[in-house]
Amino acid sequence: MYKVKVFITLRENVLDPQGTAVESALHSMSFEAVRDVRIGKYMELTIEKTDQDIDDAVKEMCERLLANTVIEDYRYEIEEVVAL
Amino acid sequence: MYKVKVFITLRENVLDPQGTAVESALHSMSFEAVRDVRIGKYMELTIEKTDQDIDDAVKEMCERLLANTVIEDYRYEIEEVVAL
């Protein structure tokens, strides 16, 4: 069994209006020291062990479904969980 | 300057219909080994150094704005960036 964490972020040159809104809200709550906010997605997947290489499988999931690679970057961490 | 990463996830006993939809989609793409998908938010904040304790500040931002603590959990990582 694997526990996979996927982080999806907007590419650097893509505008992030949601982040800008959160930044303004934080400023109005007197957190003026906040300079930049970028908002992305975080996913936790539990995947059973199969014959397929886990790294290849997760990469394909990200490319084909989880991330829009035109405007988003992704990275992931794979952790093997040993059932007791 | 600090770089703060905030991870917001749904509490374990809260249903995640978005995660269920992604899981079904992955199954239909022949990734049948996927057992569970939970979707959360990932935020990157850049914060300037001030007199206020950064840990307290980030905690207050999460509690008051970034997370809905009734249904969501949050955790964060603070990294100090030294300007060159």
Describe this structure in words.
The structure is a homodimer of 84-residue chains. With 84 residues, chain A is an alpha+beta fold. Chain A has one domain: Mth169, Chain: A, CATH 3.30.1280. Helix content of chain A is 30%, strand content 38%. Chain A contains two helices and three strands. Chain A has helices spanning 17-28, 54-66, and strands at residues 2-10, 34-47, 72-80. Chain A has a three-stranded antiparallel beta sheet. The longest helix of chain A is centred in the C-terminal third of the chain and has 13 residues, at 54-66. Chain A starts with a strand and ends with a strand. The mean pLDDT of chain A is 95. At the A-B interface, strand 1, helix 1, strand 2 and helix 2 of A face strand 1, helix 1, strand 2 and helix 2 of B. Chains A, B: Its EC number is 6.3.5.3. Chains A, B: It comes from Sporosarcina aquimarina. Chains A, B: Pfam families: PurS.
Quick recap of the structure?
The structure is a homodimer of 84-residue chains. By secondary structure, chain A is α+β, with helices and mostly antiparallel strands.
- SS-based structural class of chain A? alpha+beta
Number of helices of chain A: 2
Listing every helix as H and every strand as E from the N terminus to the C terminus, the arrangement of chain A reads: EHEHE
Shape of chain A: elongated
User: Oligomeric status of the shown chains?
Assistant: homodimer
Low-confidence segments of chain A, given as residue ranges, are none
CATH topology of chain A, which one? Mth169, Chain: A
Subcellular location (chains A, B): Cytoplasm
Subunit structure (chains A, B): Part of the FGAM synthase complex composed of 1 PurL, 1 PurQ and 2 PurS subunits.
Keywords (chains A, B): ATP-binding, Cytoplasm, Ligase, Nucleotide-binding, Purine biosynthesis
Pfam family, one (chains A, B): PurS
